[in-house]
């Protein structure tokens, strides 16, 4: 690949690994959580609790999935 | 004179809170991934920061910090969660093996490739740019408001130097922590700051303001302990306690 394209590919790959890693569902859940938090906030409903709850739940789901993969 | 000292001390304390967050990220990432790329990332962050401050000057207070917090918070959160999960799995598997000495399995996240470790660079860069920008905004807001910009600059820069010096002094101690545990600790810290900044960036008010960071830290440490015991029980083939 010529340099400009190979640089773009490298940057996209880096960002994918950085954001998605080896479990895409966590990044998607956080993204959805932030969108819902924004909607709650716009409607003057307390929204600070949602992301911590998603973090705790998704961590458990992701750990369970990773443990199954290792077995 | 009283006004000068009041601005200097207030700016120092307010900036120190931001500097602690900045130094925590840089020291944690450096100890886990390696120092070279982390230091270059932090230096690049300070370079960008100096450029922004030089170009914008007093107009800095109009920088939209909310969207910046949201983007950086989201990135720290999703990346921090990856280390959080890996840290739990490694600590559950190995316990605290290697504490105070060499960790036989400990180089899992250490960068060994040629050239720059862009992950370490990116994390350090983001931490320095966001927190440094917040320090700069504090300096401009307090300094311009009280007409004591000189005192505010001394307070802000002094806070970064003092907290940075403490981080430098502590980095040898941090090196003695086994990497599996260090990865868990840094994962928890990145997830904590990421959660706080992303939500704050949306304009949501945290109960207790900055004190909510401590609440998140307690929640995530408790979560880590719970999942570590769950993982150990799973590995032993036991049913987890209800």
Provide key terms for this protein.
heterodimer, A: 71 residues, mainly alpha, 80% helix, B: 242 residues, 7 helices, globular
Report on this model:
The complex is a heterodimer of chains A (71) and B (242). Chain A is mostly helical and 71 residues long. Helices cover 80% and strands 0% of the residues of chain A. Chain A is built from 3 helices and no strands. Chain A has helices at 3-19, 24-42, 50-70. In chain A, helix 2 (24-42) packs antiparallel against helix 3 (50-70). Chain A is flat, with a radius of gyration of 17 Å. The N and C termini of chain A lie far apart (39 Å). Chain B is mainly α and 242 residues long. Chain B is 77% helix and 0% strand. The longest helix of chain B has 32 residues, at 2-33. Chain B is globular and about 65 Å long. Chain B starts with a helix and ends in a 7-residue tail after the last helix.
Structural class of chain A: mainly alpha
**Uncertain spans of chain B:** none
| Main sheet properties of chain B | none
Oligomeric state of the chains? heterodimer
- Helix proportion range of chain A: over 70%
Please estimate the helix content of chain B: over 70%
What's the SSE pattern of chain B? HHHHHHH
**How many beta-strand runs of chain A?**
0
How would you describe the shape of chain A?
A: flat
């Amino acid at each position: 690949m010529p340099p400009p394209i190979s640089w773009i590919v490298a940057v996209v790959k880096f960002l994918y690994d950085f954001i998605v890693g080896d479990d895409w569902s966590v990044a998607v859940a956080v993204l959805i959580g932030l969108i819902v938090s924004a909607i709650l906030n716009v409607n003057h409903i307390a929204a600070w609790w949602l992301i911590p709850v998603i973090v705790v739940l998704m961590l458990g789901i992701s750990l369970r999935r990773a443990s199954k993969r290792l077995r | 004179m009283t006004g000068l000292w009041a601005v200097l001390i207030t700016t120092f304390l307010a900036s120190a809170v931001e500097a602690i967050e900045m130094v925590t990220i840089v020291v944690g990432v450096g100890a886990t991934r390696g120092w070279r790329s982390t230091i270059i990332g932090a230096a690049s962050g300070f370079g960008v920061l100096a450029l922004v401050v030089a170009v914008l000057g007093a107009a800095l207070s109009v920088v939209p910090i909310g969207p910046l917090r949201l983007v950086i918070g989201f990135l720290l959160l999703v990346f921090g969660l990856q280390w959080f999960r890996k840290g739990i799995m490694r600590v559950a598997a190995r316990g605290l093996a290697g504490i105070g000495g060499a960790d036989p399995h400990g180089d899992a996240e250490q960068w060994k490739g040629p050239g720059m470790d862009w992950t370490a660079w990116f994390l350090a860069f983001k931490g320095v740019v966001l927190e440094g920008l917040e320090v700069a905004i504090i300096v401009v807001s307090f300094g311009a408001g009280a007409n004591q910009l000189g005192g505010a600059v001394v307070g802000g820069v002094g806070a970064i130097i003092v907290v940075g010096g403490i981080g430098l002094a502590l980095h040898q101690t941090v090196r003695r922590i086994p990497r599996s545990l260090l990865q868990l600790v840094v994962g928890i810290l990145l997830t904590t700051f990421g959660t706080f900044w992303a939500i704050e960036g949306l304009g949501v008010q945290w109960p207790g303001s900055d004190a909510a960071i401590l609440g998140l830290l307690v929640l995530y440490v408790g979560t880590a302990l719970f999942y570590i015991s769950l993982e150990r029980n799973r590995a032993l083939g036991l049913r987890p306690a209800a």
